[in-house]
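in:
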């Protein structure tokens, strides 16, 4: 017993000796690199929160950044922040970013960039070549959202929305809080690459359209400001061969099919003109394929919000026939829009509903390329109105 106790003590002492040795080595390494590595302070960095990429008629990359610039000291809490939009061009994206860095006299950092605005012209570039340098060299987060726009990305980044100082914050917040019901489809950089490299080879991203605000906010600070409203109810369908815009009705239908988490609102109009508004509570969408036969089932749970343009004098409740009829009308509208998305896919060769991914899982490698016209498609939409909202 004494021999065993002595051996156990020696083993325990050796373990703790090595433990402290490892801790001392780690501490020495941290102290050494902390002194020799040049850690730039926040006042020397341009923290980019929104990035825009366009291409000129001559083929140059036109890059825009919306940055948070810190002024003053950071240690004593006296620093203030401002936002700046810079634009420059180059033969490569890196060259354009370097020029912006030189203009600002600050180091460009994309590690906090959450919004990437890519013009339709820039999306004609090989997608891997477009995104790889941003992720690899500049640490662009893979969870940054990707959108396109009807105007240059620099105009979107410079837009004053009234509710936020930076348009990037507005876009990010809108996509996170209001997925799907009105055509919004939040697509991250990671999602974008996964969809475009899949068998379907297609992805639907939000399409931003800036318009002058019809009813600008009335505040003392905003007097004289020109405010812009960023409309995002359409989608840009992106493929290797090109891209095109789909309207709100088709964007809404496609989003309900291909997105995992969908919120928002749905507003069917009855034949007599009554307008009913539902809030989306939950969506379950599943597409199954048996050979080249594909079928999509969409189950939507909604709550009744309000009805307008009705002759009803009493308060309308979720159990009333007019609300049930509105749910049936919504089923027909969405099913027709989904079917139209399929017809448009066949016409354009862009797999808006990602059907080829499902068919490929069933058929396998024998599935021919560009087989959308060979797919037999059907769909069914079920809308259930919650009684308790």
């Amino acid at each position: 017993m004494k021999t065993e106790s002595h051996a156990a003590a020696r083993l325990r002492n050796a373990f703790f000796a090595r433990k402290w040795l490892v801790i001392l080595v780690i501490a020495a390494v941290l102290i050494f690199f902390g002194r020799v590595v040049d850690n730039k302070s926040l006042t020397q960095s341009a923290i980019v929160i929104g990035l825009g990429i366009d291409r000129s008629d001559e083929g140059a990359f036109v890059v825009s950044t919306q940055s948070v610039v810190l002024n003053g000291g950071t240690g004593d809490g006296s620093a203030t922040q401002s936002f700046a939009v810079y634009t420059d061009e180059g033969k490569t994206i890196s060259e354009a970013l370097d020029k912006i860095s030189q203009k600002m006299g600050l180091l460009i950092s994309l590690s906090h960039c959450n919004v990437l605005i890519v013009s339709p012209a820039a999306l004609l570039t090989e997608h891997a070549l477009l995104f790889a340098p941003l992720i690899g060299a500049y640490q662009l987060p893979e969870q940054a959202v990707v959108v396109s726009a009807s105007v240059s990305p620099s105009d979107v980044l410079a837009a004053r929305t009234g509710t936020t100082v930076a348009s990037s914050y507005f876009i990010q917040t809108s996509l996170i809080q209001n997925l799907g019901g009105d055509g919004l489809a939040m697509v991250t950089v990671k999602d974008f690459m996964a969809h475009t490299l899949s068998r379907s080879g297609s992805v639907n991203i939000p399409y931003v359209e800036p318009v002058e605000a019809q009813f600008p906010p009335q505040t003392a600070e905003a007097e004289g400001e020109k405010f812009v409203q960023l409309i995002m109810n359409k989608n840009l369908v992106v493929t290797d061969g090109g891209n095109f815009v789909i309207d709100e009705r088709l964007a809404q239908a496609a989003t309900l099919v291909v997105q995992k988490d969908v919120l928002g609102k749905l507003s069917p109009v009855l034949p007599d003109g009554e307008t009913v508004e539902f809030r989306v509570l939950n969506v379950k969408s599943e597409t199954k394929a048996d050979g080249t036969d594909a079928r999509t089932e969409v189950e939507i749970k909604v709550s009744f919000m309000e009805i307008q343009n009705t002759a009803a004098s009493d308060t309308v409740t979720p159990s009333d026939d007019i609300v049930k009829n509105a749910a049936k009308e919504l089923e027909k509208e969405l099913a027709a829009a989904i079917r139209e998305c399929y017809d448009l896919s066949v016409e354009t060769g862009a797999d808006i509903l990602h059907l080829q991914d499902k068919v490929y899982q069933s058929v396998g490698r024998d599935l021919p390329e560009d087989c959308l016209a060979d797919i037999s498609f059907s769909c069914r939409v079920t809308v259930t109105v919650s009684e308790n909202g």
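note: The chain has nine helices and 13 strands.
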